[in-house]
TrEMBL record:
Pfam families: Sulfotransfer_1 (PF00685). Disulfide bonds join C293-C303. It is found in: Golgi apparatus membrane. GO terms for biological process: heparan sulfate proteoglycan biosynthetic process; negative regulation of coagulation; regulation of viral entry into host cell. The active site is at K99. It comes from Physeter macrocephalus (Sperm whale). The gene is HS3ST5. This is Sulfotransferase. Residues 90-334 form the Sulfotransferase domain. Keywords: Disulfide bond, Glycoprotein, Golgi apparatus, Membrane, Signal-anchor, Transferase, Transmembrane, Transmembrane helix. It is an enzyme of class 2 (transferase). 3'-phosphoadenylyl sulfate binds at K99, G100, G101, T102, R103, R182, S190, Y292, K308, G309, R310, I311, H312. It catalyses: alpha-D-glucosaminyl-[heparan sulfate](n) + 3'-phosphoadenylyl sulfate = 3-sulfo-alpha-D-glucosaminyl-[heparan sulfate](n) + adenosine 3',5'-bisphosphate + H(+). One of its GO terms (molecular function) is [heparan sulfate]-glucosamine 3-sulfotransferase activity. The lineage of its organism: Eukaryota, Metazoa, Chordata, Craniata, Vertebrata.
Amino acid sequence: MLFKQQAWLRQKLLVLGSLAVGSLLYLVARVGSLDRLQPICPIEGRFGARGQAEFPLRALQFKRGLLHEFRKGNSSKEQVRLHDLVQQLPKAIIIGVRKGGTRALLEMLNLHPAVVKASQEIHFFDNDENYAKGIEWYRKKMPFSYPQQITIEKSPAYFITEEVPERIYKMNSSIKLLIIVREPTTRAISDYTQVLEGKERKNKTYYKFEKLAIDPNTCEVNTKYKAVRTSIYTKHLERWLKYFPIEQFHIVDGDRLITEPLPELQLVEKFLNLPPRISQYNLYFNATRGFYCLRFNIIFNKCLAGSKGRIHPEVDPSVITKLRKFFHPFNQKFYQITGRTLNWP
C-alpha cells in the first residue's frame, strides 16, 4: 500500500514539474519575441518626420505568420480586406551591387517589424518584357503588408542597366535607393566565382580569372570583362545622378556588413526614417558557417543560403595588385561623390 502511494506521489510530482517547465518555456519564448518591441512607436507613412503616424509594432510582428500564409496563397480577398493588407509599390529599392551582399542586406532589414521584403528578384526595370507589362503587374508582385509598413525589393542588375534610373524615376522620383558595395577587386573575384560554379555544375570549362581580367594583348586590365566593369562603381553611379540627388542614395559597406552587421543596419534604419528596432539580439555569429545569422525571436532563426560565402579560387597576387591600382582613382571619386570613405586598399 505504501509503495503504491509513493508511486502515485512521484507521478503527480512529475506532472506538476512538466507543467512548471512548460509554463517557464512559454514565458521565456514570449519575452524573447517581444523584447525588441514597444507597445507604440512612430512609423512613417512616406518617409516623413518621425511621429506623423503611430502604429503598434506588436501588431506588425503578427505579420511573420500571417503574411507568410498570404505569400503562399492561403488567403481570400475577404481575409486580406479584414486585416487591412495591401500590396504596395516599394518605398526603397536595393539597386546593387551584384555580389556586394544584396541578399544579406535585404534579409537583415526584414528583421525590422516595419519592413516587408519582396522575396524574389522581380527584374521589372531592367527587363524590357517585364517592364512592358506595366506598373500594376509590378505592384502585384509585391508582398502583402500593412499600409504603415514599407516594402523593399532588390535586383542587383538595376545598378548597371542603362534604362533603369529613368524608369524608376518615372515611378517615384523621391524613392530611397540603397547601394551595397564591396572592395572592387574582391567583388570581381566573387562575381567570377559564382559564374565558375555554374559552369562546373554543367560540366563546362571556364577560363581562369587572370585570363579574363587582364587583356592578353595589352597586359592591361580588361574593362570589357563584365565583372571588372561592374566594379567601377562611380561610372554607374554618375548615370543615376542624372535623375536622383545624392541625398536619396545610401551606401552600405558590404565588407563591414559581413564582420559588423549591426552598425551598418542602424545607419540604414536612420536613412529610411525607421525607429531603431534591430539589435544585437537579432544577430548571432555562426562559427560553422562563418557568417552572422538572423534571430527573429527565441524560436525562429534563419541563416543565409549555403551558396553564400563561396570559397574564392587563388588569384595571382600580381593581378590583384594591378586591379587594385586600376580601381584606385575610381574609388577615390566614389568616396568624393558619396561622402563615404571605405577602407579599401
